[in-house]
Amino acid sequence: MEHKIRMKLSYFPGCSLATSAKENNWSLIEICRKIGLKLIELEDWNCCGSSSAHSLNSRLALNLASRILSLAPPERPLLVACPSCNMRLRHAQHYLKENASARDEYQRLCGRPFDPYLKIMHFFELFDQIKLSDFCGKENHALNGLRFVPYYGCMLTRPPSMRREKNYYGLMENVLSSVGASPVQWSCASRCCGTFLSAAKPDFVAELVNNIVRSAHNAAAECIVTACAMCHLNLEIRCNMKDRIPVFHFSELLSLVLGSGFPKGWSSRHIVDPMPILKARELFL
Amino acid sequence: MLRPVLPGSSKNPITVSDITPDFAAEVKRRSGTSPCLCWHCRCCTNGCPFYQAMDIGPNDVIRLVQLGLKDRALRCSAIWVCVGCHTCSSECPMAIDISAIMDTLRQMALEEGIEVVEPDILRFHEEVLKSLKRYGRAHKLEIMLRYKVRKRDWLSDIDVGLKMLAKRKLDLMPSKIKKIGELKKIFVKEDI
C-alpha cells in the first residue's frame, strides 16, 4: 500500500446492496477502507423509489429522494452504491436546483433548506479521480490478463436535462486494464438489462439477457463486469442458456486487486460459479 | 410482429372529435419536455431495447401526442413497457426527454381510470410502493409473493425464485426504517 486518501464520505447503499447484492456491498466497503475512505452510512435511509415511484407518481419519487438527500450532512460528499439510486438522487437534486417551489416543498417536508452544493457520486466515479495502481504497490498486473466485457447497461444514459454532466464511458475498461485485465470490445455494453420487467415479463427479459450473454460469449470474454446490482441480478437469474459466463460486480474485481480476499461462502452467492476462471488465471488461491 | 395501423393513414383516418386540442401542451407542461420538437427520425424506436415488447414505438407515442389523440396514446402498451432506461433520450437529436413523456402519459392514464393494457406491470409497481410504505425499503421476497398472489400464478418462475433463495439473494425478513411515520406521510400526501 503506497498511500492512503483519508477522507470521510456519506454512504447510501440502497435496497439491492443491502439484500440481494450483499457481496457487492461488502467488497465496496472493503475497497474504500483499503484506499482510506471512511464510509458513514446515512442514518435511517429509505428506498429511493426505484422505477416504480417515478412510473406511477413523479411527486412521490421526488419526495422519497428528497428525504434521502436531507439525511446527508453538507460537509461530505454522498457516495451512492447503485447507479439507479444515483440517477434518482441526482435527478431530484437537479430538479430542486431549477425549481423554487419544489425547494419550498422540500423545506416543509424535510424541515431544513435544500443544499444545492451536496456532491453526489456513484461508487465507480471514485476511480475516475484516483489511480488504482497507486494502491496496489508494485504489483500492477494483478488481474493476469483476465478477458472481460464491461457492461454498463443503462447506467451511462441520462435525461437530456443532465447531458452536460460528465460521462464516464470507458471507465471500467481504463481502471481494470490499468491493473492487468484485458477489456474485450462487444456490442452490448450499453444494452439495458430489462430491470423490473424481469418480474412482469420474464420470458421477454430472458431473451434480452440471453442476447447480452451470448454477445459476451461470442466476443471470447471470460466474464462480464458490471457496476450495477440490478444488472448483475438480471444477468444471473434470467440467463437460461447453456454457455454462460460468470458475472462480476466491478467492486469484487477491485477488491481482488487490492488483496482484500473474500469472506467465506462468497462465491456461492453467484449463480455461475466464478471460481474456475479465477483459479485458471491464478487469481484466487 | 404485426403492429397496429396508426391514425392518420387512409386505412385509419383521424376523426376530428377524437382530438383533444390542448393534449400536447398538457404533456409538455407536466413532463417538462417538448413533444412537438420531434421530427420522427425514429432514433428512439430503433434503439429501444424494449420495442419488441411494445405495440407501438416511442416516436409513435409522441406522434399521437402531437396529433392530440389522447385516448389512443393513453391506451398503448408502450407507456407501460418503457422502463425509463434513457437509451432513447440519449440518442434523440432534439434532446426530448422521452422517458419523462412516458411517465406523464402513464400517470395520466391512471388518473383518467383508463384500462391498463399491461396489468402485470402495474401490479408489480403497486406492490413495490406498498412495500416502501410498509417498511421504507423494498422487501423483494414479499413484493414477489404478493405480486404472484394477485396474479393468481404460483408456478411460473418458481425455479428462479428457489434459485434466488438458495443463493441468498432474497432476505426472508424485511429491513424496516425507524422513522416509518415520515415515509407514511409522504405516501398519504399522494393518496397511496
UniProtKB/TrEMBL annotation, chain A:
EC number: 1.8.98.1
Domain of life: Bacteria
Entry-linked InterPro entries: Cys_rich_dom (IPR004017), HdrB/HdrD_reductase (IPR051278)
Residues covered by the Cysteine-rich domain: 10-90, 151-235
One function term, GO molecular function aspect: CoB--CoM heterodisulfide reductase activity
UniProtKB keywords: Oxidoreductase
Matches recorded under PANTHER family: COB--COM HETERODISULFIDE REDUCTASE SUBUNIT B 1
Protein name: CoB--CoM heterodisulfide reductase
Species for this entry: uncultured Desulfobacterium sp
TrEMBL record, chain B:
InterPro entries: 4Fe4S_Fe-S-bd, 4Fe4S_Fe_S_CS, HdrC_iron-sulfur_subunit, Helical_ferredxn
Keyword Endoplasmic reticulum assigned: no
E.C. numbers: 1.8.98.1
Gene Ontology MF terms: 4 iron, 4 sulfur cluster binding; CoB--CoM heterodisulfide reductase activity; metal ion binding
Keywords of this entry: 4Fe-4S, Iron, Iron-sulfur, Metal-binding, Oxidoreductase
UniProt-listed PANTHER family: IRON-SULFUR-BINDING OXIDOREDUCTASE FADF-RELATED, IRON-SULFUR-BINDING OXIDOREDUCTASE FADF-RELATED-RELATED
Name the UniProt record assigns to this protein: Putative heterodisulfide reductase, C subunit, HdrC
